[in-house]
Amino acid sequence: MKNAIDQAIYLMRCRKFADAISVLNSRRENYEDSFDFHYTLGLAFLYAGDTGSASVNFNRAREIKINDPNLLLAQAAIFLRRGETDRAVQYYLDILDFEPQNKDAGRALFFVREHGNYEEICRCVDDGSIEICYPPLGSNPRHIRNLALALSLGALAGILLVLFWPRNYFAAKGRADLSALMLTVSESANAAEDSSGNFKFNMSAKEIKNAYNDSAKFFQEYRDNAAQRELNRILNSNASRPIKQKCREMMNFLRPPSFDSLKDNFSYEQVASQPELYIDCYVDWSGRVSNSEIGEDSYACDLLVGYEDMRNVEGIIRVEFDFLPIPQIDSSLPVRVLGKVSASGGKIFLQGRSVYQSVKNVYGE
Question: pLDDT tens for residues 79-106?
Answer without folding.
Answer: 988 888 888 889 989 898 888 888 888 8
